[in-house]
Amino acid sequence: MHEMTIAQSLINAVRAHAKRRQGERIVAVGLRLGELSGVDAEALKFGFDSLIKGTDLDPLELQIEHAPHRHRCPTCDREFDVIDYDVSCPQCGTSQTESISGDEIEIIYLEVED
Amino acid sequence: MRKRVSAKTKVLGENDRVAAELRSRFAKRKTLVLNLISAPGAGKTSLLEESLERFPSELRTAVLTGDIETDNDAARIARSGTPVKQITTRGSCHLNAQMVGRGLEKLGARDIDILFIENVGNLVCPASFDLGETSKIVVLSVTEGDDKPLKYPATFVKSRLVVINKIDLLPYVEFDLARAHENAKRVHPDIDILETSCKTGDGIETWIRWVVERLKAVRS
Questions:
Q1: ipTM higher than 0.90?
Q2: Contacts of residue A86 in chain B, CB cutoff 8 Å?
Q3: Closest by Cβ to B128, choosing from A38, A69, A95
Q4: Which domains does chain B have, with CATH numbers?
Q5: Taking CB atoms and an 8 Å limit, are B7 and A9 in contact across chains?
Q6: Which of B1, B6, B9, B11 is the best mutation test for A, with the most CBs of A within 10 A?
Q7: Going from the N-terminus, what domains does chain A have, and what CATH number goes with each?
Q8: Radius of gyration of chain B (CA)
Q9: The model's pTM
Q10: Cβ contact B189–A95 (<8 Å)
């Protein structure tokens, strides 16, 4: 259950943004969560909501966007979603492809009110 | 008025920053750093106990071992004469880069050729935290299940090697070795696979050779 740690880091990051956005109120945070991030979205949301409750950031909505595991083929430059762990290139068939995304835990946007 | 603003920020940015610092420090000193990950009880400590004394004597090894509580693992490893420091996470289910930095300070200023970081027993959380290691290694014991790579793909995708441990118990369990290989390769086609028994010593020499090969790669 490391979602609590991640929820806390997320809140720290939101606070840093809040400091830079004086005069605005952050009402939602958009998070991109990769398929391979090892983070359970529901547990993260639970931890986030519990940590926010009753603080000056409350109410703050966490909006989670899931990011697929994607690979790139160095031979033909094709980028593709890895489905069912199959990392071979759908175009040329090589299995020597490289991971380009899927493990992100990243804030993408904030929704603010002035 | 409500508006959406772009705010790209890595949530574990601070961990990643410290991990990057550690990585460049390790690279400068040509230290091989292996982050061992497994479920509790798969045999990470046993694997180190069985192998540390058998590494070529000119290689300086050291261990940082993480646990939620107790320094039992450090005490076990210390018997091999290898410098070891326990990192007690006090409730946290994984090591982070800051903990490794502090652990290194406790190890003191010494030259290390191979640093083993034994993570907290957990197949999920450690995968999210970069420790600045050269490679992650996942240890899977045959009392667990040959479908573990499919159940915990993140750890297997990010690991360079899977060590299938406790193979002496194969006659007594349902674990299908061929299927375990197949499942590991399915989630990560390039992953190396070794089979070991810390009881009989089977595969330990191969494990040591694998590690020494990795060290050569770091030095070249």
A1: no
A2: 186
A3: A38
A4: 7-219 (3.40.50.300)
A5: no
A6: B11
A7: 2-67+102-113 (3.30.2320.50)
A8: 18
A9: 0.89
A10: yes
Is some CB atom of chain A closer than 8 A to the CB atom of B94? yes
Question: Is it the case that residue B109 has pLDDT exceeding 80?
Answer: no
User: b vs e for B52-64, b when ≥16 Cβ sit within 10 Å of the residue's Cβ?
Assistant: beebeeeeebbbb
Please say whether the dihedral angle defined by the alpha carbons of residues A39, B20, B101 and B34, taken in this order, is positive or negative.
positive
Closest CA to B116 of B184, B170, B165, B46: B46
CA dihedral A14→A19→A25→A27, nearest 10 degrees, is 0
CA distance B114 to B219: 11
- What gap in Å lies between CA B14 and CA B23, rounded to an integer? 14
The pLDDT tens digits for B8-42 are 999 999 999 999 999 999 999 999 999 999 999 99
CA distances to A17, A114, B69, B162 from B137, in Å: 36, 49, 22, 6
- A13:B9 CB<8 A: yes
pLDDT tens by residue, chain A, 114 residues: 688 889 999 999 999 999 999 889 999 999 999 988 889 999 999 999 999 999 999 999 999 999 999 999 999 999 999 988 888 899 998 888 888 999 899 999 999 998
- Asked if pLDDT for residue B91 goes beyond 90, the answer is no
In chain A, which residues have their Cβ closer than 8 Å to the Cβ of B15? 9
Q: How far is B82 from chain A (nearest CA, A)?
A: 30
